[in-house]
Design a protein that fits this description.
This protein is α/β, with parallel strands linked by helices. It has one domain: Aldolase class I (TIM Barrel, Alpha-Beta Barrel), CATH 3.20.20.70. It contains eight helices and eight strands, in the order βαβαβαβαββαβαβαα. The protein has an eight-stranded parallel sheet. α2 runs parallel beside α3. The protein starts with a strand and ends with a helix. 39% of the residues are buried. Keywords: Carbohydrate metabolism, Cobalt, Isomerase, Manganese, Metal-binding, Zinc.
């Protein structure tokens, strides 16, 4: 299980130190929740902040763009040092074009689905993806409760991946903790995003290790 702590739950007054801390604690990736206050009811940070933080670690920068019309900023996030760039199916008018552009920029491409969005909406584009991010909460805020229906969705995506012989990463974001990690792994999740569970624990290392099953 890859563990990608979300800095959405970190202390924003000392982000560089927080990233260094989770790096040393064993984080596999650094998850970057970019919110524009339009697609989701919150505003976080953009490419300039990510560029400034890039020098703090060599770990994978996993950018989750919860923004409208993400095509406008793909070049900026690529230049900032993001390794994965994930866009929302619900925010893209021409999803294939967006994914193709991310790959042209030399980055791994992911698509995220909100809880109410069907897997059928991305079935045709699965062969082009490096990752599928299933939201297990409604996006916009950290610390929400895991939506139980997500388990079945993960299992369904795992079957689709196996039947088509694809190799994209199945990532889950929202309400992940030490109590549901085993079931998430059993259903087929390969990478978890954990914000408040990691940063809300005084021992980052212990929190991260409890998710690596």
């Amino acid at each position: 299980m890859l563990v990608a702590p979300s800095i959405l739950s970190a202390d924003f007054s000392r982000l560089a130190e927080e990233i260094t801390a989770i790096d040393k604690a064993g984080a596999d990736w650094i998850h970057l929740d970019v919110m524009d206050g339009m697609f989701v009811p919150n505003i976080t940070f953009g490419a300039p902040v990510i560029k400034a933080l890039r020098k703090t670690t060599e770990k994978v920068f996993d950018a989750h763009l919860m923004i409208e019309k993400p095509d406008r900023y793909l070049e900026d996030f690529a230049a900032a040092g993001c390794d994965y760039i994930t866009v929302h199916q619900e925010a893209c008018v021409h999803l294939h074009r967006t994914i193709s552009r991310i790959k042209e920029l030399g980055k791994k491409a992911g698509v995220s689905l909100n809880p109410a969005t069907s897997l059928a909406t991305i079935e045709e584009i699965l062969p082009d993806l490096d990752m599928v991010l299933l939201m297990s909460v409604n996006p916009g805020f950290g610390g929400q409760k895991f939506i139980e229906n997500t388990y079945g969705k993960i299992l369904m995506l795992k079957r689709m991946k196996k039947e088509a012989k694809l190799d994209f990463v199945i990532q889950v974001d929202g309400g992940v903790n030490g109590q549901n990690i085993e079931k998430l792994a059993k259903m087929g999740c390969e990478c978890v995003v954990a914000g408040s569970y990691v940063f809300g624990n005084p021992d980052y290392k212990a929190a991260i290790e409890s998710l690596k099953i």
